Amino acid sequence: MNIGIDKLSFYVPNLYVDMTDLAHARETDPDKFHIGIGQDKMAVSPVTQDIVTLGANAAAKILSDTDKKEIDMVIVGTESSTDYSKASAVSIHRLLGIQPFARSFEVKEACYGATAALQMAKDYISEHPTRKVLVIASDLSRYGLHSGGEPTQGAGAIAILVTSDPRILTLENDSVFLTEDIYDFWRPSYSDFPIVDGPLSNETYIQSFGKVWTRHKEVTGLALPDYDALCFHIPYTKMGKKALLSVLPETDETTQERLMKRYEESITYSRNVGNLYTGSLFLGLISLLEVSQELEVGSTIGLFSYGSGAVSEFFSARLVKGFKEQLLANEHQALLNNRKKLAIPEYEEVFSQTLPKHGEAAEFSDQTRFSIEKVENDIRYYREN
Ligand code: COA
Question: Residue of the nearest CA to atom 24 in ligand 1?
Fold first, then answer.
């Protein structure tokens, strides 16, 4: 049975910072951000958007009334949870009007969580082929003002509808995964921001990729020429490029050139958004599918997922007939083009705003389809416009 992605979309907040402006404000050479790290714009989330509203805004674009009746599970991969106990998936389930006899829960393992959710969805559909699973990757990627990770922040969500006989791509049964207990990036429960060993996280990412890639080759017999494109988790666009460059010498020049071109297409959106944590791999996939003119039915895409801490996975997908008609390229490009640029003092002010704590109340206004309306007695109330 073919199981995979039937619908796919993303949502990013309507505010961004230009990386040249950030570089000037931080007395850094802009080339470090644009070339060294590979980022041009960075999405900034207003206080009225959290992982619930970002996720609901992403999913509302793709779900039909029939989908809402046929979804059995809502799984949110995130590392920006708003609550230790209640899952964001429960609020998203209500906001989207999904039928009540469904499972809704969160999955956590840094940026890897949504891949675990996707594979769980695939396994569920293999037992329940007439049903559907909604997978959401939603995060606020925040390292803090003036921090080393500041230029690699971002925010946004991905929504993925997993079904049998999917209309975008099938997920192959070839996943190779790896767990290694490492402290390269983590966020203690008391802290608003992560603790990061940047060089170690870069190193672990590359080493993990090398391990799952080598094992995947051994298990499946597939090598670089068998792939039309490779997509990577993209904490910043230079990171995936480093991983790709680490294996390109394994193949001929034509394949190298093809995979590099597809890589550039896969980072087009991320360059203008920044890090989505759990969603970054899938923003890369959407960018590849919507920007590239070279992919066709049957094209094979390899995907590398990495979550600090660390868990990684390499798996492959194959494009199916009619995949282009299922994409929302125009809508996504309009979303990116219609955002408001923030001057650095405005960004710092927006970034520093927080929701009330300890039972205090506040009301907000935001014209986005889903947003936070008010906070009262430690409950977040959401508005649908
Ligand atoms: N022009 C062009 N390139 C420049 C430059 C300039 N003026 N100045 C620096 N660079 C290059 C560096 O050579 C380096 O490239 P390389 O990695 O290919 O060697 C790159 O820009 C980054 O420079 P570096 O000095 O390493 O930056 P940093 O100390 O500010 O750290 C991160 C960068 C990504 C490690 C940091 O932003 C971070 O910790 N981010 C969060 C963690 C993360 O995203 N980890 C990824 C794995 S999950």
Answer: 36
- Tell me how far CA of residue 37 lies from CA of 21, 119, 249, in angstroms: 15, 30, 22
Let me know if 79 is a catalytic residue: yes
Question: Tens digit of pLDDT for each residue in 127-162?
Answer: 999 999 999 999 999 999 999 999 999 999 999 999
Is residue 231 part of the annotated active site? The answer reads no
What's the rounded Cα separation, in Å, for the pair 7 and 71? 13
SS3 content of the chain, % helix, strand, coil (to 5): 40, 25, 35
Domain that holds residue 310: 171-323
- Overall domain count for the chain: 2
* Beta bridge pairs of residue 376: 379
- Ligand 1 neighbours, Cβ below 6 Å, are 29, 31-32, 35-37, 148-149, 151-152, 196, 198, 201-202, 205, 235-236, 238-239, 308
How many whole angstroms from 309 Cα to the centroid of ligand 1? 20
H/E run at residue 137: strand 132-141
pTM above 0.70, yes or no: yes
Grade residue 184 by pLDDT with cuts at 50, 70 and 90.
very high
Which CATH number is 269's domain given? Answer: 3.40.47.10
| Same domain assignment for residues 116 and 84 | yes
Q: Which of 323, 342, 376 is the last residue before a domain boundary?
A: 323
